Amino acid sequence: MSDLTAQATKGDISLILSNMEKLEKELLFLRQALSSKVTVTVEEFATSTGLEVKLVQKYCREGKLKATQVVKGGSWVIAASEIDRLLKEAEANQHTQPKYTTRRNNLLNRAAGRLPKRKKS
């Protein structure tokens, strides 16, 4: 039997399932750790919301997010609660906001699982 046609044994399947369970536990732990954080980085905020890093930085500069710079010109630190606030705002404004906020709201609603992921063409 070639390597390409080898069949998994019960032991292999058990090992895979065990590893999957461990990974699921680690992922849950990481999600809980992130949600219990008081502050997040711009990159963490962008990943959580689906927004681009540059847009998150712009929101910080403009005061649209509760964020501070420890050193002028340095990295931004954003209140973790802003993730939920922005996602809730996007959901509430989904059908009432001007056209220029529609893209942002759609990104946020996709990140929150309220809209299906956009298909790649």
Verbal overview:
The chain is mostly helical. The protein has a domain at about 35-115: Multidrug-efflux Transporter Regulator, Chain: A, Domain 2. Helices cover about 55% and strands about 10% of the residues. It has helices at about 10-35, 40-50, 55-60, 80-90, 100-110, and strands at about 40, 65-70, 75-80. Strands 1-3-2 form a three-stranded antiparallel sheet. A hairpin with a 6-residue loop joins β2 and β3. α2 (about 40-50) crosses α3 and α4 packs across α5 (about 100-110). The longest helix is centred in the first third of the chain and has 26 residues, at about 10-35. It is extended. The two termini are about 40 Å apart. The mean pLDDT is about 80.
Please provide a brief summary of the model:
With 121 residues, this protein is mostly helical. 55% of the residues lie in helices and 8% in strands.
Question: What is the fold's blueprint, element by element?
Answer:
Blueprint: H1 10-35, E1 39-41, H2 42-49, H3 53-62, E2 67-69, E3 76-79, H4 81-92, H5 102-111
Antiparallel strand pairs: 1-3, 2-3
Helix pairs in contact: 2-3, 4-5
Class computed from helices, strands and strand pairing: mainly alpha
Reading side by side through the largest sheet, how are the strands ordered? 1-3-2
Oligomeric form of this entry?
single chain
- Which regions have little confidence, pLDDT < 50, spanning 5+ residues? none
Instruction: State the CATH topology of the domain at 37-116.
Output: Multidrug-efflux Transporter Regulator, Chain: A, Domain 2
Helix content: 40-55%
| H/E element sequence | HEHHEEHH
Describe the biggest sheet? 3 strands, antiparallel
CATH architecture label name of the domain at 37-116: Orthogonal Bundle
**What is the CATH domain class of the domain at 37-116?**
Mainly Alpha
Q: How many beta-strand runs?
A: 3
